[in-house]
Amino acid sequence: MTRGERSWLDIAVPVTLVAVTAATRLPGLSDPRAFVFDEIYYAPDAAELLRRGVEKGGVVHPPGGKWLIAGGLRIFGFTPFGWRFAALVCGCLIVLLTYVAARQIVAGRALPALAAGAVALDGISFTTGRTAHLDVFLALFTTAAITLTLVAMREPRNDRRVHWCQLGAGAALGFGLTVKWSAAFLLLGVLLAFLWLHARRPRAPGHGRRVLGTVLAFTVLPLGVYLAVYTPWIVNADKTYIHLTDCKNHDDCSLSLSNRIRQFIEDQNRIREFQQTSLQDNNSNADLSWKWVNQTHPSTLFRKTCIPELEQAPNDLADNACDGAAPGDISEIVTVANPVVWFTAMGAGLVLLWRVVFRRDRVAFFLLAFGLYQWLPWAINPRHSYTFYVAPLIPALALWIAAALADKPFRRVAPVFAVLAVAAFAFYYPIWSGTPMSPDQIRAREYWRAY
Amino acid sequence: MSSPGFGRAATRLGVVVAVVVALAGCGTPPGLDRQEQVAFARECASLIERGLSDREPPRVAVLGNEDVNLDDPAAFYSQLERLRGPSTYNLHDSTRSADTARQPLDACKTNPRISSSLLGPKASTASTATTTTSISTTVPGR
User: Fold this and answer.
1) Measuring CA to CA, how many Å separate A404 from each of A66, A116, A399, A414, B90?
2) pLDDT (tens digit, 9 = 90+) per residue, A416-447?
């Protein structure tokens, strides 16, 4: 292959992947014209960030993801397209990052494209990439951190590359923490990966300084990013719901800097309290996270039975969920994985485990760690979880698939996997996009008949 | 990395994205309040429709002190327009500055089903087995 061909493909393949992903996700992005599940919290919170720099209601997550949603609202207004736009963009970027990450671990472009395609074709990535939930933003930052770690691991002796990659990964995880605290799960895994890179060269000059730099990159830097994203919140702390309620009986509602910092700490405590006490075990849409392994209890984000009477809804009240539906059809958005992608990934995980145990394959070890660090903390938690929490895990699972299919015995499986994944995407597309179907067609897509 | 200039290109792309996001986040777009009011009116109607449309007739619920009947759609929607008109929202009423944008939805609660599904997840799972799925869809998670 010539140099010219190489550079052309370096652009063409990722651009095609992003374009195809956007082409599958863009149609009907505005429908339903109602809030899908937790959009009811995040879209108004994002609008409040634009208005006042702070959410007014009680919050359970930091503002980073809501600022990204606010970007879409700023451009397109408070419309369904506006509040979902950031998710669309970030979902496409995740596909791109998965491609780049996979190129670090397998040769050629076919398997990396397959890994990126697996993310694009997955139902959890698809639904979270089309709705204004926070998990797609978390997935973007965790995938960026994984990608940068793999870039560094590819050339561990290139100090400059390792240095910049660890700074990038630390910053990415800092941004991840501003979306959801669960980014911390991966932080430890990535920190260990960089420490391992240094441990391989204990006698290299400046070893101690590099280790210290790595520790700072994954402690001080994320903390700095976290505080920087919270700066507008601290500046506008006098406009929070809690403060407005507290100061109702006082003439002066202004806050000193020390009081603003106290408000910030109290806000962090409220988030911690929610995360610790909210078991969500009474919500029929949530289940124990270890059950993610067989996808028996996916979260239904939206469901509406279509009847002829709904056609008379005036434009300013119609949610358009039943457009083109026959009487009795159901519009449903279910966060369930593409079964081909998911169960292939489960098998690929076993292949990687075999490679870790019998071949002492360190890349396989870290790939497994990047996935399991984002799963096990949930799995051992009694809290019931929603399947859209899986979104950051999907790119890691796609990397498992790419790494496993790179093994000689499995290479012939790759085309079969690609065809089946596309076929499954086409089959399940209606329950990921909310396209109305008859109850029988919907039931045919419940692959465990359990939800 | 796959190509020598990739790191530089990625950095530039990151800077461009950061600048666009920062610029996009500054200020409020024109008509934001009005659009938000319309969105909540739609959400309100959608919640009530979802609560009623998978029932057999009569599809009647109590909204505030009034019955709403989806089997008579013309009357149903004119009632909703009247009850849920944008004028009832209070996003910028200074006397209610502690209110949140979500509060108008409290008045969208029909009795008994919608009220339990939006804000009381416990009650939603206690609904009849045949309608569990549809009810659970409107239970926010976070």
Assistant:
1) 36, 15, 8, 10, 56
2) 999 999 999 999 999 999 999 999 999 999 87
Cβ–Cβ of B35/A78 closer than 8 Å?
yes
Q: Which residues from chain A sit within 8 angstroms of residue B81, using beta carbons? A: 314, 316-317
**Beta partners for residue B111, in sequence order:** B62
Q: Are strands B60-63 and B66-69 parallel, antiparallel or unpaired?
A: antiparallel
Shortest Cα–Cα distance, A68 to chain B (Å)? 7
Cα–Cα distances in angstroms (integers) from residue B34 to residues A47, A131, A278, A368, B86, in the given order: 12, 22, 34, 48, 8
Tell me which chain B residues have a C-beta less than 8 angstroms from the C-beta of A319. 42-43, 45-46, 49
- Out of A102-106, A128-132, B63-67, least confident range: B63-67
Residue A356 CA to residue A364 CA, distance in Å, equals 6
Question: Cβ of B73 and A312 within 8 Å?
Answer: yes
Contacts of B71 (CB under 8 A, 6+ apart): A309, B57, B58, B59, B60
For residues B1 and A426, which has the higher predicted lDDT (pLDDT)?
A426
| B114 and chain A in contact, CB less than 8 A | no
CA distances from A18 to A126, A219, A323, B32 (A): 13, 33, 28, 30
Q: Do residues B101 and B39 make contact, with C-beta atoms less than 8 angstroms apart?
A: no
Q: Per residue in A293-345, pLDDT tens? A: 888 889 999 999 999 999 999 998 999 999 999 999 999 999 999 999 999 99
Q: How far apart are the C-alpha atoms of B21 and A71, rounded to whole Å? A: 6
CB pair distance less than 8 Å for A284 and B29: no
For the segment A109-146, what is each residue's pLDDT rounded down to a tens digit? Answer: 999 999 999 999 999 999 999 999 999 999 999 999 99
Tens digit of each residue's pLDDT (9 = 90 or more) over A265-298:
998 998 898 888 876 667 777 888 887 888 888 9
Residue A219: pLDDT band with limits 50, 70, 90: very high
Query: How confident is the model at residue B136, as a pLDDT?
Result: 32
Among residues A15, A13, A21, the alpha carbon closest in space to that of A394 is found at A21
Contacts of A244 in chain B (CB under 8 A): 97-98
DSSP letters of A341-405? Answer: HHHHHHHHHHHHHHHHHHH--HHHHHHHHHHHTTTHHHHT--SEE-GGGGTTHHHHHHHHHHHHH
Length reported for chain A: 451
pLDDT in tens, B18-60: 676 666 556 788 888 888 888 888 888 898 899 899 888 889 8
CB contact under 8 A, A304 and B132: no
At a CB cut-off of 8 Å and minimum separation 6, what does A168 contact?
A144, A145, A148
Distance from the Cα of A408 to chain B's closest Cα (Å) equals 22
Tokens of A174: 């800092």
Cα A363 from Cα A351, distance rounded (Å): 13
